[in-house]
Amino acid sequence: MTSLQDEAIVEDAQTIELHMMEMRKYLPMIGCSSLFMRTVLYPYGVIKTRLQIQSGKDVYKGTWDAVKSISRTEGIRGFYPGFGVYCFTIFPGMCYISSYEGVRHYMNTNTNWNQGWLKSLVGGGIASIVGQTLVVPIDIVNQHIMLLDRRKKTTSSNNVRKKEAREKLRTLQEIHIPDELRQRRFGTVRAVISHVYTADGLLGFYKGYFVSIATFAPNSALWWFFYEAYKEKLLSVIPEIVPRLFVMSCVAAPLAGVSSAALTNGVDVVRVRIQVKGGTVQETLSTLLREEGYKFWWKGLSARLLQSCVSSVLILSLYEPLKRWSLKEEFRDCVKW
Question: Which of 36, 150, 282, 304 is deepest in the core (most CB within 10 A)?
Answer without folding.
Answer: 304
